[in-house]
Amino acid sequence: GQQLNQSPQSMFIQEGEDVSMNCTSSSIFNTWLWYKQDPGEGPVLLIALYKAGELTSNGRLTAQFGITRKDSFLNISASIPSDVGIYFCAGRSGQFYFGTGTSLTVIP
Amino acid sequence: GAGVSQTPSNKVTEKGKYVELRCDPISGHTALYWYRQSLGQGPEFLIYFQGTGAADDSGLPNDRFFAVRPEGSVSTLKIQRTERGDSAVYLCASSIHGGGAYEQYFGPGTRLTVT
Questions:
Q1: How far apart are CA B84 and CA B50, in angstroms?
Q2: Angle at the Cα of A31 (from A11 to A65), degrees rounded to 5?
Q3: Alpha-carbon distance A81 to B26, whole Å?
Q4: Is B104 on the interface with A (CB under 8 A)?
Q5: Does residue B76 contact residue B4 with C-beta atoms inside 8 Å?
Q6: 10-residue averages of pLDDT along chain B (115 residues)
Q7: Half-sphere exposure of B27 (CA within 13 A, CB side)
Q8: Exposure class string for A22-40: b at 16+ Cβ within 10 A, else e
Q9: Do B42 and A44 touch (CB under 8 A)?
């Protein structure tokens, strides 16, 4: 099945730094969801986006629904060690398609 | 409240055997999804139920895979004649799907290993 392209594939950052990652597709989507997954667990929903151009925050996380409806961005401010994990985007066009994931490592 | 639960958490089976994986969605969620996640990949859509009926089963890889949701709550994913390539984590998610809301909440998954 189709998978969205996420970048970067992995990130190694210092605690306190800001993080940016994005998700792109050749198709238009009506909904974007962002998830975080820890090893051995299911993905946990972080943010849901429903309108092109929408900017939504959840604590230190901010996500945007791209105006072309083919991309989305997730930013994490002032990273902390518990931000470690794999972040997935998911876009809805009928069914949901998931990205390839961005692995985040935070160095204390 | 209780989240999505999945049983078993781990299943090891021999090639050619039949397996059933169970999902208990969040109470009141009408939509239920099954995904398969291979190592290092994002979840891959298998099937989506709205109530008791399969609204979209286009992600099922072949006719060895089948899923049911007879009462619109618990769902069972069934895999016949398992193959080693079926080894993966099988994730279930549920959603309210009301008023344009599509947030999906995932269970912890069932890790299936076919030997």
A1: 30
A2: 55
A3: 30
A4: yes
A5: no
A6: 92 98 95 95 94 93 97 97 98 81 91 98
A7: 2
A8: bbbbeeebbbbbbbbbeee
A9: no
